[in-house]
Write a structure and sequence with these properties.
Helix 1 crosses helix 8, helix 7 crosses helix 11 and helix 9 crosses helix 11. Helix 2 links the parallel strand 2 and strand 3. The strands form five sheets. The chain has a seven-stranded parallel beta sheet with strand order 3-2-1-4-5-7-12, sandwiched between helices. The chain has a two-stranded parallel sheet with strand order 6-15. Strands 8-11 form a two-stranded parallel ribbon. The protein is globular. The chain is built from eleven helices and 15 strands. It is about 40% helix and about 20% strand. By secondary structure, the protein is α/β, with parallel strands linked by helices. The N and C termini lie far apart (about 40 Å). The structure holds nicotinamide-adenine-dinucleotide and uridine-5'-diphosphate-4-deoxy-4-fluoro-alpha-D-galactose. The site of nicotinamide-adenine-dinucleotide has 26 residues, from helix 1, strand 2, helix 5 and strand 5. The site of uridine-5'-diphosphate-4-deoxy-4-fluoro-alpha-D-galactose has 21 residues, from helix 7 and strand 9.
Length: about 350
C-alpha cells in the first residue's frame, strides 16, 4: 500500500513516516520546508533503512498534487501539512486561514479527481474550545477555539463532515491530538521549532541546554492539585502508531467518517513535567512561577476509550519516556549543530 504524507518532514509527519516504513508501507512525502529542514529526509532513511519518494512543493498547488497522483498509485493520504503556532495565528490570521484551508481544499479536490478517497486528518483537542469539561469525549459538542489556528481545525472538520455527507464513498478519519511531546529513541528527529518556543517541552529543552535562561510556569493558582495547569501529554511515537491503526482501519473497512481522540487519558501538571524531567535526566531546571497565560484552560484531558475500542490503540510510553527522549533529541541536535 502506498501512502501520501503531506507535511511529512515535520515533527509528527516524520515520526509517522518512520512508523509507516517500519510497517512496510510505501511512502510518498510532500513538504515545502516552511517549518522543517531538508535533512529530516536522510534521517528517516537512516532510522528505517528504507527509501521513499519525496516531492518538494506546496500542498496548495494542485499541479504538483496531480503530478504525485499520476506518478504514484496512492491508496490513502495522511494530511499533516499546515501551520500550527497558536500565537502566530493571532497576529497573522490570513496566513493561517490561507495555508491551512487552501492546502486542505486543494488536496481534497485533487483526491476527488484522482478517485482516492481515503484520508486521515490531523485535528486537535483545540476543537473542543472552551467547553467547560475537563475530560473530552468525541461526542461532546465542539466549542469555539480562541484563536485562528484552532478555528482552521474546526473549519476543516466541518468541511470534511460536509464532504462525507455529500459523497459517502469517502473514508475520513479525524484524529484529535492532545499534547504531543517526545522524540524517536534515535534522537535523530524531534520537535525543533525555530525562534523562541511557545510550547512547554521545547521551552524546557532550551532551558535544559542553556539556550534560554529560565522557564516561566504560567500560573500556580489554578484550581488543580498543585495549582498549575493540567494537560494530556502523548509521546509522538505513540501518536504516530495511532496513525497506523487509523490507516489500517480506513483501508480495510467500508467508507465512513470517524473521529478519535489520541491522548493518554492521564492528566499531568506543569510542575509534574518539570520535576519528572529533572529526575529522569538528572539535572536541575531553572524555573519560576509567573502570571497565567491568556487563553489557557486549567485542565484538559482526553477520554481515549473509543480509540482503544475501535482501533485497538492506546499509549504505551510513560511521562519518563517523554522527558528522556525529548532531552536525548535536544542533546544530539545541539551536538550536531556544533
Ligand atoms: P510541523 O510544523 O512540525 O509539521 C508540518 C509540516 O508541514 C512542516 O514540515 C511544514 O514544512 C509542512 N507544511 C506546512 N504547510 C505546508 C504546505 N502548504 N505545503 C507543504 N508543506 C507544508 O507540525 P507538527 O507538529 O508535525 O503538526 C502536524 C499537524 O498536526 C499540523 O496540521 C498540526 O496543526 C497538527 N497538530 C499538531 C499538534 C502539536 O502540538 N504538534 C497538536 C495538534 C494538532
Ligand atoms: N506552559 C508554561 N510555560 C511555558 C509554556 C507552556 O507554563 O513556557 C504551560 C501552559 O500554560 C500549559 C502547558 O504548559 O498549561 C502546556 O502548554 P503548551 O503551550 O505546550 O500546550 P497547550 O496545551 O497550550 O496547546 C496545545 C497545542 C495547541 C493545541 C492545544 C489544544 O500546542 O496546538 O494544545 O489543547 F491547540
Amino acid at each position: 500500500m502506498k501512502i501520501l504524507i503531506t507535511g511529512g518532514c515535520g515533527y509528527i509527519g516524520s515520526h509517522t513516516a518512520v512508523e509507516l516504513l517500519n510497517a512496510n508501507y510505501e511512502v510518498v512525502i510532500i513538504d515545502n520546508f516552511s517549518n522543517s529542514k531538508r535533512d529530516v529526509l536522510d534521517k528517516i532513511k537512516v532510522i528505517t533503512g528504507k527509501n521513499f519518494s519525496f516531492y518538494e512543493g506546496d500542498v496548495c498547488d494542485k499541479e504538483i498534487l496531480r503530478q504525485i497522483f499520476s506518478e504514484n498509485k496512492i491508496d490513502g493520504v495522511i494530511h499533516f501539512a499546515g501551520f500550527k503556532a497558536v500565537g502566530e495565528s493571532v497576529s497573522k490570521p490570513l496566513m493561517y486561514y490561507r495555508n491551512n484551508l487552501d492546502s486542505t481544499l486543494s488536496l481534497l479536490e485533487v483526491m476527488n479527481e484522482m478517485n482516492c478517497k481515503k484520508l486521515v486528518f490531523s485535528s486537535s483537542a483545540t476543537v473542543y474550545g472552551d467547553c467547560h469539561e475537563t475530560r473530552f469525549v468525541e461526542t461532546i459538542k465542539k466549542g469555539t477555539p480562541s484563536n485562528p489556528y484552532g478555528k482552521t481545525k474546526t473549519m476543516i472538520e466541518d468541511i470534511l463532515e460536509d464532504l462525507y455527507h455529500a459523497d459517502p464513498t469517502w473514508s475520513i478519519t479525524m484524529l484529535r491530538y492532545f499534547n504531543p511531546v517526545g522524540s524517536h529513541s534515535s534522537g535523530l528527529i524531534g520537535d525543533d521549532p525555530s525562534g523562541i518556543p511557545n510550547n512547554l517541552m521545547p521551552y524546557i529543552l532550551r532551558v535544559a541546554v542553556g539556550q534560554l535562561e529560565c522557564l516561566t510556569i504560567f500560573g500556580n493558582d489554578y484550581d488543580t492539585p498543585d495549582g498549575t495547569c493540567i494537560r494530556d501529554y502523548i509521546h509522538v511515537v505513540d501518536l504516530a502508531q495511532g496513525h497506523i491503526k487509523a490507516l489500517e482501519q480506513l483501508l480495510n473497512n467500508e467508507p465512513k467518517i470517524r473521529i478519535y481522540n489520541l491522548g493518554s487519558g492521564q492528566g499531568v501538571s506543569v510542575t509534574e513535567i518539570v520535576t519528572t524531567f529533572e529526575k529522569v535526566n538528572n539535572l536541575k531546571l531553572n524555573y519560576k512561577y509567573g502570571a497565567r497565560r491568556n487563553g489557557d484552560l486549567p485542565a484538559i484531558c482526553a477520554d481515549p476509550t473509543l480509540a482503544l475500542k475501535e482501533l485497538g490503540w492506546k499509549t504505551t510510553k510513560t511521562l519518563e519516556d517523554m522527558c528522556r527522549d525529548s532531552y536525548n533529541f535536544i542533546i544530539k541536535n545541539s551536538q550536531n549543530k556544533n
